[in-house]
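Re: the request from the purification team.
They wanted to know what the chain is likely to look like in 3D before they choose a buffer screen. I agreed to run a prediction and write the result into the notebook, where they can find it.
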Amino acid sequence: MAVIATGVLAAAALAWSLRIEAGDPWFYPATFILAAIYIVGSLVAVRLVGSRFRWHVSRRGIRDAVVGGGLLALVFFAGAFLVRFIPFLRDPVDELLDHARVGSLVFVLITTAVNGVAEEMFYRGALWRAVKPGYRMVVTTVLYTAVTALAGVPLLAFAAAALGVLVAVLRERTQSLTPPIIAHLIWSVSMLVVLPQVV
């Protein structure tokens, strides 16, 4: 029940935060509220079943996360060169990136990082544990993509699907939350810093 409630509240908060216009001071509180929903909901859900998150990981797991996150970022950089010539795909991305251009890049970086960790705690943490083994990779990726799609940015939904597959594979292979978080942060921060220049 805690997992479902967290997912619904987070979906509403995400849709709200990403529809706030660039430069609006409410953007930062909104994104931190979203992160808080994910983190608190995940901690409550895990505690209710008497479990804990697993953070320990091997060096190989960390290496795979760094390589995977970096390669995925490179793929999206290459795709961005094509997207800038397709208005219906470029314009929504441009509006989303305006938060970094118009607002404080430092604050946007912080909220991006915090939300990256929060999303992994929920999707590859609490939700992962709530789903039966064998279905976890598919269910968490599909739900993560579906919630992200509420933002109304087609490429963001596609990115969520690609990232969701990568972090789900890392979670399954390492049985730890650390590699998914590392890969997520490398990808999202790279997108935030480099993508505005490309698009």
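For the purification team: The two ends are 41 Å apart (CA to CA).
Please add any questions underneath this entry.
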